Amino acid sequence: MNKFEVHEQLDKVILVSDIHENWQALKKIVDLPEYGKSDYTLVFLGDYTDANGSNLHEPIKVINFIMDQVKNHGALAIHGNHDDMLYGTAIGDSDKFFNWGNNGILETQELLGLTANEVNIELTKNELNEKYSEYIDFLDEIPYAIEDQKRLFVHAGIDWTKNNYHDTAVEDLIWIREKYFFSNFSAASLYDPVKRPIVDKAWHRNTSNKVIVAGHTPSYFLSADQSNPIVEMRNNQNDFPRYDIDGGSHSADIEAALNILILDKEGKEIRRDRLLA
């Protein structure tokens, strides 16, 4: 698979991230007025499975819908960290398997009709390849980031310490948090209520010269707003905007929605929407 999938120039895009098995919200995406129009591309920014805090988990419907949209309706999709753990398990990566054990493996196995197990990678690997070979092949084909001349779409973010953001490690593309968001990241901790930099946000400057859209971090941790709205970040008024669109679907402090961000081909915001389960 490619780390970055490069397009010369996409048209307008409909962006959604961190679905986390929330089929009841995701299925409403087809009701958006922009959906299905030839000048709009639907882009999924990762984390299709694994969830917390809800009884509305329907991973099979979610992954089947996403595969169909990509294969038959021109949509695009990338890996998130949860997709990477499932895929890594399917190809025998024990580190990915045991990390998945800390991130929702047992419930997802049950919902996928697999044997609940967090110690025997061969068992889960074999069951995934036997029952979900089409999905494993799909994950093998999709990239970790998508970009064109004006915009960059990634699950978590990029590493500003690299001279070229294309040198960002795959693990950072799907896991990075503080050092992507903040210029003072050494003092920031999104999960420490004392250090959580909600009031005094020193956003890192966007040196990519592109509008960046990512998910991965429920926006509550950046805004202190429990409704998990889309967060726009700029270091200054001339900075290229970055967006965190993770609406906290089945993964935040409270139950939340899927955020939708729609951009024009220049990266300018057209509108926002929210899909509720």
Indicate the topology.
Blueprint: E1 4-6, E2 12-16, H1 23-26, E3 40-44, H2 59-73, E4 76-77, H3 81-90, H4 94-100, H5 105-111, H6 121-131, H7 133-141, E5 145-147, E6 151-154, H8 170-175, H9 178-181, E7 211-214, H10 220-223, E8 231-233, E9 242-244, E10 258-263, E11 269-275
Helix pairs in contact: 3-4
What does this structure look like?
Helices cover 28% and strands 16% of the residues. It is α/β, with parallel strands linked by helices. It has one domain: Metallo-dependent phosphatases (Purple Acid Phosphatase, chain A, domain 2). The protein is globular, with a radius of gyration of 18 Å. The model has no long low-confidence stretch (mean pLDDT 92).
Keywords:
Bis(5'-nucleosyl)-tetraphosphatase PrpE, globular, bis(5'-nucleosyl)-tetraphosphatase (asymmetrical) activity, 277 residues, Metallo-depent_PP-like, Ap4A_hydrolase, alpha/beta, phosphatase activity, Purple Acid Phosphatase, chain A, domain 2
